[in-house]
Amino acid sequence: MIGLGLEGYDPDSQHDAAVAFHVRVVADEQRIPRHQHRKGQLILALHGAITCEVENAMWMVPPQFAVWIPGQLPHSNRATPSARLCFLFIEPGAVAMPDRCCTLKISPLVRELILTLAVRSPEKQEPATRRLVEVLFDELPRQPEEQLQLPVSPHPKIRLMSETMAASPAQWQTLHQWASHFAMSERNLARLVVSETGLSFRRWRHQLQLIVALQGLIRGQSVQQVAHNLGYDSTTAFITMFKKGLGQTPARYIASLATTSR
């Protein structure tokens, strides 16, 4: 990933309350390997999407949403080609933010505050910039959380299931398929999924499907294409699953993101 003004920047080298950067993703640098830093980090998706993975969960961040990563939390990031992002680094204790990784739905006001901060030099923060940061810190804690995370696990079976189902969701859909693959009973595999993820296999699979669906829709695939890629025989059944998970039909959800995109 190439940052506009981010090259060579060490988030922990300075103690400014907040510093923001524009980031444009190039094709051969779509992944930032596992790392950590003292500062908390908010990654705002402007165009395209980013997936953030921590030890036991994965977050999908579509446009107009952001993932919050507390300081000192090891994480890796993967973005869609040509994605445009904003990185906001926040000094520990500067503002009351969640102590866990989460996805936040970003208001137009907060988005514009972050974008404005990103075009100002981090080398010298003028009084006007500090006032902007104060307003940003007033608004950030008010941003609502969105349930776009997928609980994962270092357990090799869970890891294999999540990676394979994300890559080929239509081919790997049922608990029976996986139980046969692992040569274990469906009951024991169902218990393993619950113990490692906190969700039933069905709920866990639906959450993964939501993430894969959003990735496809954001890339411009039609609702019918996404439903087919997920293995749904009926587009209506896919729309029902999507609306149950995110509260809107796929078309309305994507349209709501587009209305505030830049």
UniProtKB/TrEMBL annotation:
A family per Pfam: HTH_18
Sections of the chain in a coiled coil: none
UniProt-recorded name of the protein: Helix-turn-helix transcriptional regulator
Entry-linked InterPro entries: Homeodomain-like_sf, HTH_AraC, HTH_AraC-typ_CS, RmlC-like_jellyroll, RmlC_Cupin_sf, Tscrpt_reg_AraC-type_HTH
Alphabetized UniProt keyword annotations: DNA-binding, Transcription, Transcription regulation
CDD domains to which the protein is assigned, alphabetical: cupin_NimR-like_N (cd06124)
Domain HTH araC/xylS-type as annotated: residue spans: 155-256
Record organism: Leclercia tamurae
